[in-house]
Amino acid sequence: MNLPTESGVDVVTVSLWVLLVLVVVKVVNLVKNFQDHVRALEKFPGPPRHWLLGHVHKLYPPDETGALKFTNELTAEYVYAFPLWFGPIGFLNTCHPEYAKTILATTEPKDEVVYRFIKPWIGDGLLVSHGQKWFRNRRLLTPAFHFGVLQPYTRIFSDSTNIMMAKWKQQGAGALISVFDDVSLMTLDSMLKCALTVDSNCQVDRKQNPYVSAVFGLGKLAVQRFLFFPLHSDLIYYFTPMGYRFRKLCRLVHQHSETVIRERRQALKHQEGHQDSPNQGKKYLDFLDILLKTKDEDGNGLSDAEIRDEVDTFMFEGHDTTASGLSWTLYNLARHPEYQERCRQEARNVLEGRSEVTSPDLPKLSYITMCIKESLRLHTTVPGVGRKLTKEITFPDGKTLPAGSNVGVSPWNIHHNPHVWKDPKVYDPSRFLPENSKGRHSHAFLPFSAGPRNCIGQHFAMNELKTAVALIMQSFRLTVDENHIPTAANSLVLKAAEPGLFLKVMALD
């Protein structure tokens, strides 16, 4: 029998003492942070909190029976803002345009409480970067969303929508479709073509394309982690099968993006020296072309790592949020046949039977635009955004939040605030008639956020939404399935809680 040596005992003892010290330091920091949050938020009235959980037990499930309902009730009571607590971590949830305007006028960095779940995937792209890097890259990326660049994309949106509608027709009259599944594939199809000029064929068989499967898998894994509080711990998540799969899919996506970027950079260099290069025949610049060609005032372009982050960010942000907006718009039109019929008549008058929407058609789709906007209000694609204050901020009523505070802007709560919108639960496209929009607060409608950190791709998204709705309305009648009434749920973007969102589709002659 080997007894531990004196030095061995010393090592064990020292290790235990080090572990104890680390635990004590961690506890002290938690207590200090908790006290800081209490002092910062004590001037803002809000609901009572559980001594240990805060409001976590009220925020689950994250749908219209749980978190979304709970925060809407608080919005009606507290009007402007109220504190919410995730255990010892507190933040101010703002739910009124006046408070939102104050926050969104700044360039304060995003709060990584949620965004850190997807940061290993999207890197330090425009969504989460801050400071000088954000300023520089925002300026460099803006030309990618210029009106002239977006014009040719309407043909791509039309092609992708037509592929989806062909699938619907094959299923027969009155077929029951899972809207989010089909629409997500359609918007991802468009995104791959617009961003990378890649025809993935994902709407026909997404399993044939490992990149497409990986993008879908990463999105689902991020949502699952967000919904299960213990997995918020990086250490716990790292050792779970879910964490392992997330890292594996991240590597696959990054390798794909890096390969495409490397090959495109080589092709552009070849193109510069050869006028007869195959790329000369391209009818549009894709997102990657612009990222590779853009340069700042010093003549410096983006590095391959920066380009990869922006491409991955664009793929994440661009397809899932648009899919949410389109799915809920189709659902709301199915619920209101009278509005659906007006959209159909407008689409037929503008398109005259054409299967392709052109850029000049888009301004003529005024009623469809109103219906889309009202759906984005009622079913807000991104229910909330968070910021981490680097300096003190003062609201119009004189209340302040100190540097280091967590603060959230909730477009969902603003859009459902009865002190801002009359009958906020009612779907009414006439809210967006020009005469009804006059006098409305500039920050009462925030589907794409506002201020310097607003969504850079909002015109891209609206063009795709208008294109898809017009083509679908021209060719199909949608009705709800009474056996599958969906419930909205917040999972990074607003989706439908299980079992999902189903509609019946009827092809029109």
TrEMBL record:
Heme binds at C455. The keyword Metal-binding applies. Its main location: membrane. GO terms for cellular component: endomembrane system. InterPro entries: Cyt_P450, Cyt_P450_CS, Cyt_P450_E_grp-I, Cyt_P450_sf, Cytochrome_P450_Monoox. PROSITE patterns: CYTOCHROME_P450 (PS00086). Its cofactor is heme. Keywords: Heme, Iron, Membrane, Metal-binding, Monooxygenase, Oxidoreductase. It holds the Pfam family p450. GO terms for molecular function: heme binding; iron ion binding; monooxygenase activity; oxidoreductase activity, acting on paired donors, with incorporation or reduction of molecular oxygen. SUPFAM superfamilies: Cytochrome P450. It is found in: Endomembrane system. Belongs to the cytochrome P450 family. This is Cytochrome P450 4F4-like. It comes from Branchiostoma belcheri (Amphioxus). The gene is LOC109485988.
